[in-house]
Amino acid sequence: MKLSIGIVGLPNVGKSTLFKILTKNEVNIANYPFCTIDPNVGVVSVPDERLDQLAKMSKSAKIIPAIVEFYDIAGLVKGANKGEGLGNQFLTHIRETDAIVMVLRVFKNEEIIHVENSVDPIRDMEIINTELALKDLESVEKLYKKAEGESKIGGTPAQKQAIKDFEAVKKIKSVLEAGQNLNTPEFAEALENEKVAALNLLSGKKQIYLLNGKLEDVSEELKKKIAERLARSSFSEGGGGYVIMDLSIATDIPELVKKAYEVLGLISFFTTGEDETRAWTIKKNSKASQAAGAIHTDFEKKFIRAEVVNWQKLLEAHSASSGQAGWSAAKQKGWMRLEGKDYIVQDGDVMEIRHG
Ligand SMILES: Nc1nc2c(ncn2[C@@H]2O[C@H](COP(=O)(O)OP(=O)(O)OP(=O)(O)O)[C@@H](O)[C@H]2O)c(=O)[nH]1
Ligand SMILES: [Mg+2]
């Protein structure tokens, strides 16, 4: 499972700086708006302390971390949907992503130009969310006409479905026109409609707010606004949905990646051996057979059982035993469990899958 995230925000707020920290690749950064004119895609490995420890235990030849793909695109400005700035054509580059990181500038620095001439993250957040919704409205309007037409073709077996599709499109359109947040439980069903889902609407995606600056630059009001925006959304359990990072000095990305996993409801499990220690990304509440399917599609169908032990328990068993391999030490201690296909995999499980 490959996770992908699009970075959005006004020009000059630090998107490419973030991208550079993430990928440690040289990308085009300069102190002027619109310096990014091509989409930059970076593949980032997910930092995970657990992987290194397991690899050390197993004396693995390779470590294979989970990966996240980040897309850096040009900044959006107010009126982008009407062709202002570089327009919003770059938004199509992040249509396929799983989530959006919205970079908001909270840092104060007179030398760095702000396209709106003042530092006001609440205003900026509104501008970007509005532009995302307006971009979506463009695609929804096209579909609306088509779906309306199809729903009126009477007497065909397909009409029933066509009417349902039209209802879903209509609902989404009215929400976007009202400037409301699409990513809330009440619109989940309409968003899942096949025709609507195919549009990959931007404002239906999960959001993580990256507040670029220092802790003391972040006002309570901003936190409140973000909380309000995310409160009704289906991922509010993720807690907050924002991270504060001073991109001018940041070196560390685990917090952001952790937040992305949280917001997207993802967890990691591991496989470990002499060849490799590897992290696998799956949805929370996945069954053991589905986890096996993440490794190889065949394993899901041919799943027999899984040997499972928590990563910490495995290491503990290993260090308690003198030189014995962790896996057999964990077996001896009775910490390793045999689980069937319906077992719900937990974050940090180390698994060995038996399959036919
Ligand atoms: N002081 C300070 N400057 C920053 C920070 N983050 C970014 N900058 C500076 O702001 C300028 C713009 O940063 P970029 O990362 O290129 O901005 P961008 O959002 O990618 O801009 P566009 O590509 O034009 O949309 C650069 O000169 C950065 O060095 C920060 O946290 N503090
Ligand atoms: Mg940029």
Cofactors and ligands: guanosine-5'-triphosphate, magnesium ion
> Which secondary-structure class do the elements indicate?
alpha/beta
Distance between the termini: 23 Å
Q: What is the correct CATH architecture of the largest domain?
A: 3-Layer(aba) Sandwich
CATH structural fold name of the largest domain: Rossmann fold
Spatially, the strands of the biggest sheet line up as 2-4-1-5-6-7
Strand segment count: 12
Radius of gyration: 23 Å
Q: Count the helices. How many?
A: 12
Unreliable stretches, pLDDT < 50, 5 or more residues?
Answer: none
Oligomer: single chain
Number of domains: 2
Explain how this protein is built:
The chain contains twelve helices and twelve strands. By secondary structure, it is α/β, with parallel strands linked by helices. The radius of gyration is 23 Å and the shape is flat. 38% of the residues are buried. The two termini are 23 Å apart. It has two domains: 3-263, Rossmann fold (3-Layer(aba) Sandwich), CATH 3.40.50.300; 285-355, Beta-grasp domain (Ubiquitin-like (UB roll)). It has helices at 15-23, 49-58, 121-151, 159-177, 185-192, 194-197, 220-231, 254-263, 288-295, 297-301, 311-320, 326-332; strands at 3-8, 40-45, 62-64, 67-72, 99-105, 206-212, 242-245, 266-272, 276-283, 303-310, 337-339, 349-355. Bound molecules: guanosine-5'-triphosphate (GTP) and magnesium ion (MG). The site of magnesium ion has 5 residues, from helix 1.
